[in-house]
Amino acid sequence: MLGGVVRAGASKAGSGPIVGDGPPTQSAARDRDLGGPKTGSCPVGPSLSTFNERQTTYNRLSCEASQKPTTSMEYPILVNEVWKSYGTVQAVRGLNLNVPPQSVYGFLGPNGAGKSTTIRLVLGLQRPDRGDVYLFGRLLARERLAVLRRIGSLVEAPSLYLHLTGRENLEIHRRLLNLQKRTIDEALATVALTTAADRLVRGYSSGMKQRLGLAQALLGNPELLILDEPTNGLDPAGIHEVRELVRDLPARRGVTVFLSSHLLSEVEQVATHLAIVSSGELKFQGRRDELRALRRPTILVEVDDTERALALLIGMGFCATCQAGRIKIALAPLSVDLPNINPSDINAVLVGEGLRVSHLSLEHLSLEELFLDLTRSPDAREASV
Amino acid sequence: MMLFYVLNAEMLKLKRTIAVPMAVLSPALITLFAFVMAANAPFSTLNRNGSTREWATLTGLSFLFWAALMLPLLVTLETALLAGLEHSESQWKSLLARPLPRWNFYAAKLLVSLALATVSTGLLVVGIFLNGAVLPRVQPELAFALPVPWLDIARRAADVLCLAFLLLTIQNWVALRWKSFSVAVGVGIVGLLMGFFASVASQQGAKEFQFFPWSLPMLALGNKTSVNVATGLKFSLIAGTFVAAMGCWDFCRREVQ
After folding, report:
1. pTM for the model
2. With an 8 Å Cβ cutoff, are B16 and A120 in contact?
């Protein structure tokens, strides 16, 4: 499993050609994500540039040995440098994903980030313009039917026949998969819909429809479950139920769950691994604790002359912004080995310039702020500096 | 084998839809229409000019309305309904993510539409027999001679059905290709009207108009100006198979949004 912040296009620099039809090896995947010179995006100051450079080149192999697949054959999903566009709109740009077995893999990004497109590519509903998708080590384009047998999916809103009952909806998929009748009862019991099974779906609430969609995906005990925004339209109780179900699946059934959402808070609670995409590009991929380690500490400063202090700090190369009369100085992530900046040094500099400091504190970026920071467009990021 | 799984699922999808009632009601309406006409004015409809070929005339009358109007309309609505089941709740993303060849889904829709058209036409044949049995009781002038020419009637039904194969494959492709119900119905209605004009044009001597998909079924009526029915059958089956193959190819390569 490859962890860390990833820059768009960075993966291309270090990638060797993938020869033949076999999936890329893990070392190739690692090389791919490790390579390439990168440039910072923050426009101010030399040390800031250094920080951004360090941030964007921060890539490292971080899975625990016990969880690390020994070969790429064990990756339930391996997306290799995939591109997809619709006309002039580039929906997915050189995406690389490595989903470890029996993980709950949170696939995060704002609306329009390319999550649903990626899921459609992984399910073979669409074809990539470039790149390959491997499922269980097999090339999807070549062995679609063989790999789809091992997958259950719920893409966006559940696809249900409203004029049929819940049980009949499952019966359609049971017939398609040629499964035993009892699998329907098992799936209904898993999503707690047994009592409503013989009611027409037209009369179901949104939450019940969502649960029936989940039951459809679970039919046939798939090894990989792909869920696109599965809690859409659910009330808090429903969200809790789905969360518990998803959390338990890897342990109970040995299932790998690929869970897409635009809400970090929703995924963060259940995911063992996370990927963050924005504008079709991968911004982060790694374990949950690796994302936490990326939270940047910030120093908040209140002075009598904000404009002068801001100019001074930017001139010194700090990534400083002014928000609501406060100066916010972003430091390097905890996990990046840059020289520590002591808040008292900043205080000394400001006081030395004749500024009166009324507040100075060291704070950490929340995961939510980190997510927003990673998914913010470059323009928005520049505007905020 | 996998096609059987998909067909099996398709049958369940028809439950509580108007697909089967429509397939029953359409021939029933034509049967009733022919009955009312013959019962009220037997000499102007069935034994015209003192004809004693009531079975042949009743069969021709029933199949005229069936081939020219009801069957194309039924095919339009059935194919649109079957495709609409999948379009309405974005079923394709769920179905096509299943480990089944995509062509199975296309072929299953075509086969179910064909089966419904066959059942309907079969019911019309039953309706003709019923009319032949009941009409002499309400109109003593009508004498349906025995034995019943069931082979002739069945052959005529098979001809109409096979001649409608081309329009069925076109409607099936249009209905599956475009999500909008109105596109499929619009094509069917325009085709029906154009078919009427094509028939008129062909009776005026422009024989090539008889090969217009929506007027092809009328070849089975044995109009004097018609080309050989066998030629029409070959054209319908070959062109229909080609359209079905092209539609299937298009369906298999299309991306699911």
Report:
1. 0.80
2. no
Parallel, antiparallel, or unpaired for β A89-99 and A77-86? antiparallel
ipTM of the complex model: 0.89
Number of H helices, E strands in chain B: 11, 0
> Would an 8 Å CB–CB cutoff place A178 in contact with chain B?
yes
User: CA dist B144 to B56, B137, B150, B221, Å?
Assistant: 10, 11, 12, 20
DSSP E strand stretches across chain B: none
Give me the phi and psi of A45, to 5 degrees please.
70, 145
Please name the residues in contact with A142: beta carbons below 8 A apart, sequence gap of 6 or more. Answer: A21
Which positions ≥6 away from B75 have C-beta within 8 Å?
Answer: B113, B117, B164, B167, B168, B171, B188
**Assigned CATH topology for domain A2-150+222-292:** Rossmann fold (3.40.50)
Q: What percent of chain A has pLDDT over 70?
A: 76
Residue A174: closest C-alpha in chain B? B9
- Architecture of the domain whose range is A296-364: 2-Layer Sandwich (3.30)
Cα B185 to the center of its chain, rounded Å:
15
The interface residues of chain B toward chain A in range 41-100, judged by CB-CB distance below 8 A, are 85, 88-100
Residue of B nearest to A123 (CA): B97
Type and span of the H or E element at A290: helix A288-293
Given CB atoms, is B146 within the 8 Å cutoff of chain A? no
A8's CB contacts (< 8 A; 6+ apart) are: A93, A94, A281, A282
